[in-house]
């Protein structure tokens, strides 16, 4: 009897020990996952649970950047918002976005909409000529110009789907458009509410995004991608580059 009791006690003890070890490992594993790989795993989840019915070839997801230039003028129906031109498909969204800001107490200025490649060439040539006039070597003048002006063919403005939109007070302080405009609540309102109108802040501030887009933080440049995409991308911190890559992976599988 005593031997049996001892055996039972030992078995019970072992089971208790096993449960404690299992619990300890379990909670440790969870903690570890949350602490170190949460952003990575979130990105992975975000790129595998993409919105249904969205395709990488949709008109509102066209990608133009330095790696994907488009050297032919893009044909689309143009429409005006104030004195600026945008793709007619997004005209109402731009109007609504600005009206939303106004209703929240912020007057805004549409600084830029569609820019043709031809116009971009002019801007580029002017800035380059000015840099050369200032006595810079040809090589340095070109490098300086590329820092501030997008090479013709690689500006998103040629799609008619990108806008530079600024709170009037932010623009008054930073007429040359700089990231610091986000010190103003007007600009922050635009950044926070852009997805409600189908826009994303196209060039975010964090290092990972800058690496993905190849463009420094622009607190004023918004890109139309449609409400579903904009909300999803913003919620999961996905740049257009990463979002498109994920959509293409889904289409290939
Ligand atoms: Zn812009």
TrEMBL record:
InterPro entries xref list: DD-CPase-like (IPR052179), VanY-like_core_dom (IPR003709), VanY/YodJ_core_dom (IPR058193), Zn_M74/Hedgehog-like (IPR009045)
Keywords of the record: Carboxypeptidase, Hydrolase, Protease
Name assigned to this protein: LAS superfamily (LdcB)
Top enzyme class: hydrolase
E.C. code: 3.4.17.14
Residue span of region Disordered: 32-52
Top-level lineage group: Bacteria
Compositional bias (Low complexity): 36-48
Coiled coil: none
Xref: Pfam families: VanY (PF02557)
Gene3D superfamilies to which the protein is assigned, alphabetical: 3.30.1380.10
Record-level Gene Ontology MF annotations: zinc D-Ala-D-Ala carboxypeptidase activity
Stretches assigned to the D-alanyl-D-alanine carboxypeptidase-like core domain: 85-226
């Amino acid at each position: 009897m005593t031997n049996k009791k001892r055996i039972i006690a030992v078995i019970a003890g072992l089971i208790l020990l096993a449960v404690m070890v299992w619990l300890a490992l379990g909670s440790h594993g969870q903690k570890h996952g949350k602490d170190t790989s949460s952003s990575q795993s979130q990105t992975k989840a975000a790129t595998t649970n993409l919105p249904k019915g969205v395709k990488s070839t949709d008109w509102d997801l066209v990608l133009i950047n330095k790696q994907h230039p488009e050297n032919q003028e893009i044909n689309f129906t143009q429409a005006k918002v104030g004195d600026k031109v945008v793709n007619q498909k997004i005209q109402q969204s731009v109007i609504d976005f600005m009206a939303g800001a106004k209703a929240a107490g912020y007057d805004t200025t549409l600084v830029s909409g569609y820019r043709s490649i031809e116009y971009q060439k002019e801007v580029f040539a002017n800035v380059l000529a000015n840099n050369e006039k200032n006595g810079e070597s040809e090589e340095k003048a070109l490098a300086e110009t590329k820092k501030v002006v997008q090479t013709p063919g690689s500006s998103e403005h040629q799609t008619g789907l990108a806008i530079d939109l600024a709170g009037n007070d932010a623009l008054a302080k930073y007429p040359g458009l700089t990231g610091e405009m986000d010190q103003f609540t007007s600009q922050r309102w635009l950044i926070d509410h852009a997805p409600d109108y189908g826009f994303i802040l196209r060039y975010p501030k964090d290092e990972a995004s800058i690496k993905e887009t190849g463009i420094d933080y622009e607190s004023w440049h918004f890109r139309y991608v449609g409400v579903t995409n904009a909300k999803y991308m913003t919620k999961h911190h996905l740049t257009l580059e990463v979002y498109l890559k994920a959509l293409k992976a889904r289409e290939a599988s």
